[in-house]
Amino acid sequence: MxxxxxxxxxxxxxxxxxxxxxxxxxxxxLHERGREVHLIVSxxxxxxxxxxxxxxxxxxxxxxxxxxxxxxxxxxxxxGSFVFDSMVIAPCSMRTLASIASGSSDALIPRVAEVCLKExxxxxxxxxxxxxxxxxxxxxxxxxxxxxxxxxxxxxxYPRPETVQDMVRFVVGKILDQLGIDHSLFTRWxxxxxxxxxxxxxxxxxx
Length: 207
Description:
This protein is of the alpha/beta class. The chain contains 8 helices and 6 strands, in the order αβαβααββααβαβα. The protein has a single domain, classed as Flavin prenyltransferase-like (Rossmann fold, 3-Layer(aba) Sandwich), CATH 3.40.50.1950. Helix content is 40%, strand content 15%. Strand 1, helix 2 and strand 2 form a beta-alpha-beta unit. The radius of gyration is 17 Å and the shape is globular. The N and C termini lie far apart (36 Å). The C terminus is likely disordered.
């Protein structure tokens, strides 16, 4: 397989945690940047997508190269021989996180995450839960030690977000940073503008 083709291929999983906007905006951002998105939405993730955004799964699927059911265990994604660059689970429920940490691949999303870990591919988990228990922390530790990136949905406030959309775009921008994909979804920190002789944070975000 051509290396450039595999680098453009990214798997996105959406599970049943609150925060469907993160997954939706991520898929949209990847689509706009010409990435081949392979999308998996769990049944609960589909419910949250409808509940929080009023968006049917079919609309999101139009932004993806292919949509898979979470019980589609015979899909190409379940094998390490199917080459892709990275996987992002956004949002990642604590149930899914625990399943990956324990090696219990009883659905396609945790199975593909397992493939990422065993094949040494990039795995980014975006948990959206608060507060978190010691069990959650230990599961995150296990996955971090196994090579996964834990990227909690924690928007920053130094860019002075004006809308919820701005806060979502910050998190999605951080995901794109980890994927090595250029973007201007948020204003980057460039120093304290109140300090004499410093340029200040004046990088513009794209419309």
